[in-house]
Every structure is written in structure tokens, then in C-alpha cells.
Amino acid sequence: MALNDAAKLLGQARHVVVFTGAGISAESGVPTFRDALTGLWSRFDAQSLATPQAFQEDPELVWGWYEWRRQLVRRVGPNDGHRAVAQLAAHVPQLTVITQNVDDLHERAGSTSVVHLHGSLFAPRCATCSRPAPLPETEDQPDEGQRVAPPRCVHCGGPVRPGVVWFGEQLPEAALESAARAASECDVLLTIGTSGLVYPAAEIPRLAARSGASVIQVNPRPTPLDPIATANLVGPAAEILPALVTTAWG
Ligand code: BV8
Ligand code: ZN
């Protein structure tokens, strides 16, 4: 099924869910987790750093890594893929944007009420009392791997942690619930730039398919979601998504 067929599906849809992963931010210059060479996994073995244990053992390394990522995101901008997702809101009767990403590029491209399944780089909180903490004022980007002491909570003195969901941690219940509800009700789910390996987030496109939705995948490489994709648009999001919107709505 080519882009034209996928555009037709999209053009007729009542409720569209957009489900994104690190790949949609790749063309903005934000490293993905798995892409060889540039991927965060290969440089920092993100799977072992993105855990409560790592923060417990070496809070400065973990805080420094997230500050490096946050400052990097502040220095880049949304790309044409994020902008095409934002444009969908003007065309489809009901749109739900769900992301696994912890950057704010969907919001900066104009998407509203984005469901963040794995939290955000821009919502730090106290690791002890969980109260929200202010973002550090500094504009400096630490070097990769540079240790930075996390700020202390003004209320209880505990260490401030990134507002993201680490491996082994529960996803925010409200976010997961609204994502699952949207996936089970939508008629088209667009899965963009995700390797579909991390659960329970990876369940979302599968739930949509089981609920009878058409699944359109946008990814330059094969993924475990290929078998459930009604349409597999092989290529970069910043190229394919604008073409999809233009073909569907001119
Ligand atoms: C939980 C926030 C349970 C932090 C993230 C088996 C063994 C061990 C563990 C598990 C297991 N089965 C399940 C688990 C649990 C684990 C898990 O799923 N592990 C995986 C590795 C197997 N899950 C968890 O721990 C979750 N919590 O299960 O809690 C529980 C139960 C009860 C009580 C308590 C707890 C929490 C998981 C959340 C982890 N946090 N992020 C941070 O950002 O640092 S996950 C993180 O990785 C992302 O958010 C995302 O979800 C995932 C990365 O995936 P992608 O976004 O898909 O990115 P990736 O790099 O993989 O792929 C990029 C894709 O883009 C590629 O396909 C590429 O081809 C494509 N691409 C590249 N360029 C482009 C492009 N596409 C389009 N255009 C381009 N230009
Ligand atoms: Zn506190």
C-alpha cells in the first residue's frame, strides 16, 4: 500500500492517533536510542543509565546525562515531521498525539495536549518527596558524560531527578489510560519513528490493530510492528509526513 493509499485512509479517518518514538526527533538532531553509532544506547548504554538504580549509585552521572540531553533539545528545533503532525489537528475531526519521547518538540511544533508516556526532560521533581522542582537556570550544556550535581529540593533537601519514566518504573497511570483508550477507539493509528520494543508503550499500536484500526507505519527501517502495519511507508518522517498531509488534504 503506497503513500497515496495511506493518505486516503488518513483523509477519511474520524479519530487518528499519532504514536511517536525517538525517530521523529532524529532529523532535529536528537540522538535516538538504538541507531548505531549515534544512538544514546551505544554511547552511554542508556538502558543501564535510565534506571533508578543508576541514579541511586551515581546521581551526578545520571543528572549530567539528562542535563546534556535537555540542553541539546533546547538548542534544536522541531522538524517538518513534528510540524506535519501538528497540522493534522486542523484536518482530522479527532486527533490524539501520544509520544514516548521526553523532548518538547511536538509542543514546540504546535501540537497540544500531547500524551507523554515516559515523562519529560522539562519536569524535574524531588526524588525523595516527589514535589516538582524548578528547571536549572543555566544555559550551559555539560560535556557528554560530564558529572553534574543534581539540585537539592527546597522543601526536603532531597536530590532532584529528571521527570522521566525509568526502566522498572510505572508509567503515569493517567497517560497510559488515555493512550490505551484512544488506541482502542481510533480508526487510524500512525506509528512514527519507533522500534516498538519498549513495553508497555509498545502495546499501544498493537492494541489499535486488535481493535480494528488501520495502522500506518513511518520508519526507514523494518521493525517488529511491520506485521501489523496496514501501510508501511519506508523513509524519514520529515520527508514522508508532509507528503502524507499534502496528498491527503492538498
Ligand atoms: C515497566 C524515558 C514495570 C527515559 C524510556 C524484559 C526484560 C527487561 C525488562 C522488560 C522486559 N519486558 C518488559 C520490560 C520492562 C521494560 C522494557 O520494556 N524493556 C525493554 C528494553 C524490553 N519496560 C519498563 O521498564 C517500563 N516499565 O515495565 O514497569 C513495572 C510493573 C509493575 C511495577 C513497577 C514496574 C518503563 C519503560 C520506560 C523506559 N523509559 N524513556 C529516557 O528517555 O531516558 S524508554 C525509551 O526507549 C523511549 O522512551 C522509548 O520508549 C524507547 C526507545 O524506543 P524508540 O523511541 O522506539 O527509539 P529507538 O531508538 O529504539 O528507535 C528509533 C526508531 O526510529 C528506529 O526504528 C529507527 O529506524 C527510526 N528512525 C530513525 N530515524 C528516523 C526514524 N524514523 C523516522 N524518521 C527518521 N528520520
Ligand atoms: Zn523533596
Structure, described:
This protein is an alpha/beta fold and 250 residues long. The chain folds into 2 domains: 1-29 and 77-118 and 170-250, TPP-binding domain (Rossmann fold, 3-Layer(aba) Sandwich); 31-75 and 123-164, 2-Layer Sandwich (SIR2/SIRT2 'Small Domain'), CATH 3.30.1600.10. The chain contains 11 helices and 8 strands. It has helices spanning 3-12, 23-26, 40-44, 46-49, 52-57, 59-75, 80-91, 105-108, 173-185, 203-210, 237-249; strands spanning 15-20, 94-99, 115-116, 119-126, 160-164, 188-192, 214-218, 231-233. The strands form 2 sheets. A 6-stranded parallel sheet has the order 3-2-1-6-7-8, sandwiched between helices. Helix 1 (3-12) crosses helix 11 (237-249).
| Subunit arrangement of the protein | single chain
Shape: elongated
| Overall number of domains | 2
Q: Class of the largest domain in CATH?
A: Alpha Beta
Annotation field: number of helices: 11
Rounded Rg: 18 Å
Weakly predicted, low-confidence segments: none
Output the strand order for the largest sheet. 3-2-1-6-7-8
Please describe the biggest sheet, giving its number of strands, its sense, and whether it closes into a barrel: 6 strands, parallel
Order of helices and strands: HEHHHHHHEHEEEHEHEEH
Brief sketch in words of this structure:
This protein is an alpha/beta fold. It has helices spanning 3-12, 23-26, 40-44, 46-49, 52-57, 59-75, 80-91, 105-108, 173-185, 203-210, 237-249; strands at residues 15-20, 94-99, 115-116, 119-126, 160-164, 188-192, 214-218, 231-233. It contains eleven helices and eight strands.
